[in-house]
Design brief:
mainly alpha
Length: 138
């Protein structure tokens, strides 16, 4: 119960700044997905309130840089360049995250991020398959 309360406090704390910055590069429904990701990572890392207060601003910068790498990939379609950019971003932020969380939690963070992405992909596939079942065949 204490964990749930701290997750809710963190989510409420992060929500107002997100709305005050506008919707420049947001996709419809991206806010809910981002909230799910924050909750997932917070639970997985078992962040203390102090760690969370330091971690999430760094995470926001990290997330923006990752997003920019994907935007650049969309224009040049350089797969190797994308992978190199992502690796450099992860290396850079593994040092930055040390300011907020201990080294084992940094590894856990990168694993949790991958696990969340896999979960989202599977859920999307499941929903697409479910939608196909209900479509009438002509």
């Amino acid at each position: 119960m204490k964990k749930l309360f701290s997750v809710l406090v963190i989510l409420c704390w992060l929500t107002p700044p997100a709305h005050s910055q506008g919707q420049t590069q947001q996709r419809p429904g991206a806010g809910g997905l981002e909230s799910m990701k924050i909750g997932f990572i917070t639970n997985r890392l078992n962040l203390t309130p102090e760690e969370a207060q330091k971690f999430w601003p760094i995470y926001k910068q990290y997330s923006n840089e990752v997003r920019q790498a994907y935007f650049a990939y969309r224009s040049d379609h350089n797969e190797l360049g994308l992978e190199e950019n992502l690796l450099n971003i992860r290396k850079k932020y593994s040092v930055e995250f040390l300011k907020a969380i201990p080294p084992p939690k940094i590894n856990d963070f990168f694993r949790a991020e991958k696990d969340f992405n896999v979960f989202i992909q599977r859920e999307l596939q499941r929903r697409q398959m479910q939608g196909r079942r209900f479509q009438p065949v002509n």
